[in-house]
Amino acid sequence: MSDWTARLSEARAAAERELTSQLGGATLCQIRSDGRVTGGAKYAEGRLVALVDLQRRLHDDDGEPLAAVQDELARWAADLERLRAHDRPSLTWLAYRQGGCDALVEVANGRTVND
Fold first, then answer.
1. How many domains in the chain?
2. Does the residue 96 lie in any domain?
3. Whole-number Å distance between alpha carbons of 53 and 75
4. Which residues contact 18 (CB under 8 A, 6 or more apart)?
5. CA–CA separation, 57 vs 65, rounded Å?
6. Are 48 and 106 in contact (CB under 8 A)?
7. Does a structural domain hold residue 115?
8. The pTM is what?
9. Region for residue 35 given its phi and psi (left: phi exceeds 0; alpha: psi -120 to 50; beta: otherwise)
């Protein structure tokens, strides 16, 4: 297992634990239908989705891992800036995109949420 694969697997497992903790035993669908979606849950969901997307990309692409991380981060950051430009941005979606950006920065810098 390469260093990138191990680091990404560790980060994904930590993101899964974080999201599970935020959900308190419920599913995302349950908290959405109950109107209980919080910024913390969306942040954790964004972290997990960004890492899953990156894992998928690295699995399907033989390119340089750091370049893939940087490309994914650029995509997530552009979406975050697009949301911030709205007059009244959705705080939960800002949290989601910020979570993804933070997770990708941590992976690029060789850190995980446990560091």
1. 1
2. yes
3. 11
4. 44, 47, 48, 113
5. 9
6. no
7. no
8. 0.84
9. left
Let me know if residue 9 belongs to a domain.
yes
Instruction: Specify whether the CB–CB gap between 79 and 94 falls below 8 A.
Output: no
The residue whose two tokens read 């910020």 is 98
Distance CA 77, CA 87 (A): 18
Is residue 76 within 8 A of residue 97, CB to CB? The reply is yes
> Cβ neighbours of residue 1 under 8 Å, at least 6 residues apart?
9
| pLDDT tens string 33-76 | 666 667 688 899 999 999 999 999 988 877 788 899 999 999 99
Q: Which structural domain, as residue segments, surrounds residue 88?
A: 3-108
Spatial distance between the Cα atoms of 53 and 59, rounded to a whole number of angstroms? 10
Nearest to 57 by CA among 40, 73, 69: 69
Residue entry with tokens 């750091």: 66
Q: Classify residue 114: in a domain, yes or no.
A: no
> How do residues 97-107 score in pLDDT, each as one tens digit?
999 999 999 99
Interatomic CA distance for residues 65 and 34, integer angstroms: 39
Decide if 100 contacts 49 (C-beta within 8 A).
Answer: yes
